[in-house]
Design brief:
Lipopolysaccharide assembly protein A domain-containing protein; elongated; cell membrane; mainly alpha; 3 helices
Length: about 130
């Protein structure tokens, strides 16, 4: 859902930039290095500037995401080494922690082992009388 709102906000922002650019179509001089200049429509200057800004922000975000993923993998390896197992052992660790939580939770309805041959009760546990 958050991604949808981000996309909608980006589209609204792009629409506002486009409307602003269409209202400013006069040619403007753009100065390059070494004293060179050229006249371009203001719409092109605005849209290209917005595009370059978006690309730079996007590339910064991608670099940050890459670093965070690399850090996550490194920390998972360290955790696996501390527990004396590989990355699959982390799943076993999470599963055993979940089982311990279920066993120690007094409000949990799953306190006893399930018999493979037992039939489920047609009455929900909350309505059964003790």
């Amino acid at each position: 859902m958050r991604m949808q709102w981000t996309l909608i906000a980006a589209l609204v922002f792009a629409l506002l930039i486009t409307l602003f650019a269409l209202a400013n179509m006069d040619p403007v001089p753009v100065q390059y290095w070494f004293g060179q200049s050229a006249d371009f429509p203001l719409i092109l200057v605005i849209l290209i500037s917005a595009l370059l800004g978006g690309l730079s922000i996007g590339s910064i975000g991608m670099v940050r995401q890459y670093r965070l993923q690399r850090q996550l993998r490194r920390l998972e390896r360290q955790l696996a080494e501390q527990h004396g197992s590989d990355a699959d052992g982390l799943q076993d660790l999470h599963a055993s922690e979940s089982e311990e939580t279920l066993r120690s939770d007094p409000e949990s309805e799953v306190n006893e082992p399930v018999d493979e041959h037992s039939q489920p009760s047609p009455i929900p546990p909350s309505e059964q009388k003790l």
